[in-house]
Amino acid sequence: MSHKEDNEEKSRCHRTDLYASIPRTCLPIVYHPDYNITFMGLEKLHPFDAGKWGKVIRFLKEEQFINDGNLVEAREAAEEDLLVVHTKRYLNRLKWSLVVATITEIPPLLFLPNFLVQRKVLRPLRTQTGGTIMAGKLAVERGWAINVGGGFHHCSSDRGGGFCAYADITLAIKFLFERVEGISRVTIIDLDAHQGNGHERDFLDDRRVFIMDMYNRYIYPGDEYAKRAIKRKVELDWGTEDSEYLQKVELHMEGTLNEVLPDIIVYNAGTDILDGDPLGGLSISPQGIIKRDELVFRAAKRRGIPVLMVTSGGYQKKTARIIADSILNLHRQGLIEAFFPPCLDLSLKPRVFSD
């Protein structure tokens, strides 16, 4: 994208509630109880634990790491926010229950009136999407931010799939490009077990975005067209275990960050790499996942790069505990203390638009 086009992009900013100021007393951890999907047991028809986000928060509260007073409450992404990336045609298609049933892989949804599907399924996903956008701004301001949900990396501007109805990663990056001075290069480190074909399709021809994607080569989505956007592609075999996995994470992540020093890292921290996951097909231990997250945050902090982390896939009941344990480990290691990245001048405030 040219400098002229970038300036034109900034001039088209709409009014949004997602970039409102957050009190300094809040940790940059974003969540809302509306993240969790519960409706007549239909959510159990997909292997995804549709209540894992609330369980992560409960575990963190039990460890007295967070409380209701220092959490950042996510806001639902409005239609105008979504239109920064999504086409009007795609959003209109989500008004058909059959389309949502296909995207979320919950067939019985097609029999429900769409107003219920909107309220019980899509609103939680829109709230998580809003949380990712909010966490992007927070990461720049605080040095790090974690959206306890989000990571819908199979959704692109005009199509969803794999339980991903909104392109929250693309949206967060587009918001940063449009609204935050000093953000001109972004690196996506996608370590979910599946290829992140959604953001790859969205940034296929965008040289501002460097994508590292490490995934099981044999599973969904196998999107060869989208793979053209990956600058550092790491394809794993069935049953890859901790030693090989962590070695590859460190090697390729260091190579990625040495090749291009970004203004922010968007880290898609899927836990579907866990041994026994019904969809991931890898064999990583809980300790391996915790170490993986530590490697990413340590590399970022060493270089003074802000990190936005989203939790993405993870299809076992125990993944919530692992996510919470990983966040606690990052805190113990001093990797999610408040630090300000020297590569950004934080006196250049984001342009905030709110109603």
TrEMBL record:
<dbReference type="InterPro" id="IPR023801">
    <property type="entry name" value="His_deacetylse_dom"/>
</dbReference>
<dbReference type="InterPro" id="IPR023696">
    <property type="entry name" value="Ureohydrolase_dom_sf"/>
</dbReference>
<keyword id="KW-0156">Chromatin regulator</keyword>
<keyword id="KW-0805">Transcription regulation</keyword>
<dbReference type="GO" id="GO:0000118">
    <property type="term" value="C:histone deacetylase complex"/>
</dbReference>
<comment type="subunit">
    <text>Interacts with HDAC6.</text>
</comment>
<dbReference type="GO" id="GO:0140297">
    <property type="term" value="F:DNA-binding transcription factor binding"/>
</dbReference>
<keyword id="KW-0539">Nucleus</keyword>
<keyword id="KW-0678">Repressor</keyword>
<dbReference type="InterPro" id="IPR037138">
    <property type="entry name" value="His_deacetylse_dom_sf"/>
</dbReference>
<feature type="domain" description="Histone deacetylase">
    <location>
        <begin position="46"/>
        <end position="326"/>
    </location>
</feature>
<dbReference type="GO" id="GO:0141221">
    <property type="term" value="F:histone deacetylase activity, hydrolytic mechanism"/>
</dbReference>
<comment type="similarity">
    <text>Belongs to the histone deacetylase family.</text>
</comment>
<keyword id="KW-0378">Hydrolase</keyword>
<dbReference type="GO" id="GO:0040029">
    <property type="term" value="P:epigenetic regulation of gene expression"/>
</dbReference>
<dbReference type="InterPro" id="IPR044150">
    <property type="entry name" value="HDAC_classIV"/>
</dbReference>
<comment type="function">
    <text>Responsible for the deacetylation of lysine residues on the N-terminal part of the core histones (H2A, H2B, H3 and H4). Histone deacetylation gives a tag for epigenetic repression and plays an important role in transcriptional regulation, cell cycle progression and developmental events. Histone deacetylases act via the formation of large multiprotein complexes.</text>
</comment>
<keyword id="KW-0804">Transcription</keyword>
<protein>
    <recommendedName>
        <fullName>Histone deacetylase 11</fullName>
        <ecNumber>3.5.1.98</ecNumber>
    </recommendedName>
</protein>
<dbReference type="InterPro" id="IPR000286">
    <property type="entry name" value="HDACs"/>
</dbReference>
<dbReference type="Pfam" id="PF00850">
    <property type="entry name" value="Hist_deacetyl"/>
</dbReference>
